[in-house]
Amino acid sequence: MVGLQGAGKSTWVAAELAGNHAVVSKDHWPRARHREARQRHVVAGLLAAGRSVVVDNTNPSAAERAPLVAAARVAGVPVRAVWVDTPLEICLARNAVRPAERRVPLVGVHAALGRFEPPSVEEGFARVDVVRPSPDLVHATGDPVR
Ligand SMILES: Nc1ncnc2c1ncn2[C@@H]1O[C@H](COP(=O)(O)OP(=O)(O)OP(=O)(O)O)[C@@H](O)[C@H]1O
Ligand SMILES: [Mg+2]
């Protein structure tokens, strides 16, 4: 998964993939040390066991996605990127109405935005899918920022 905080990644995963994929996310261990290494270890283990895996993090840059592409290559399975491309204004509005314990600090959203690079097949993805909110939602929630 690729997308800013509040874009709707976890919601999309729950609706589309959770039935037949193991869902891995560093958010599952918010206070653990070495979360990145732990996530790579878990993903590699699941792939080695033959499971389909979805990694539900912001994954904003090619550099952050590269270890996941590499893990798929090692396991000999195809990997796709699903970019939940929700306008920043909507991400921020959704984040603002989250319960306090699930709200992401603004600086975190802007950090992800600053590192953001659209996923591309040149990174090694067999497919890049883009999920966008319906125009109705965009109009209802605020002007899209592009
Ligand atoms: N398609 C949608 N339409 C309306 N609201 C949505 C939609 N998808 C998600 N939301 C709402 O937006 C908020 C953020 O969604 P979600 O938790 O799925 O985002 P996320 O991309 O996983 O964020 P994070 O990176 O912080 O985990 C939630 O309150 C969710 O209910
Ligand atoms: Mg999420």
TrEMBL record:
Pfam families: AAA_33 (PF13671). This is AAA domain-containing protein. PANTHER family: BIFUNCTIONAL POLYNUCLEOTIDE PHOSPHATASE/KINASE (PTHR12083), BIFUNCTIONAL POLYNUCLEOTIDE PHOSPHATASE_KINASE (PTHR12083:SF9). It comes from the Bacteria. Gene3D superfamilies: P-loop containing nucleotide triphosphate hydrolases. SUPFAM superfamilies: P-loop containing nucleoside triphosphate hydrolases. One of its GO terms (biological process) is DNA repair. InterPro entries: P-loop_NTPase. GO terms for molecular function: ATP-dependent polydeoxyribonucleotide 5'-hydroxyl-kinase activity; double-stranded DNA binding; polynucleotide 3'-phosphatase activity.
